[in-house]
Amino acid sequence: MEYLQQFDLPLIACIRQSQRYVQAVETGVTLFDGNRIDSVDQLHWRPLLDWLVRRR
User: Fold this and answer.
1) Rounded CA gap, 8 and 27, in Å?
2) Nearest-angstrom CA–CA distance, 11 and 17
3) What is the pTM of this model?
4) For residues 22 and 17, what is the distance between their CA atoms, to the nearest angstrom?
5) Who's near 1: CB < 8 A, 6+ residues apart?
6) CA angle 40, 36, 29 (to 5 degrees)
7) 8 Å CB contact between 45 and 13
8) Three-state secondary structure along the chain?
9) Cα 31–49–1 angle (5° rounding)?
10) For 3-55, what is each residue's pLDDT tens digit?
11) Distance between CA 13 and CA 6 in Å, rounded?
């Protein structure tokens, strides 16, 4: 995180390390396909997704 402080960018979200990302790559799907996203992933991704929508 110290490295990122040198840039003028807001810290929007911290995405946890998870095997789900590896599994998604292996199967060719995203965490958002169908009902694949769980409540913990939603908590981590929601701030980033909300920020992206507001930036449009």
Assistant:
1) 36
2) 17
3) 0.63
4) 10
5) 11
6) 120
7) yes
8) CCHHHHCCCCCCCCCCCCHHHHHHHHHCCCCCCCCCCCHHHHHHHHHHHHHHHHCC
9) 95
10) 878 888 888 888 888 888 898 889 998 888 877 677 888 888 899 999 999 98
11) 17
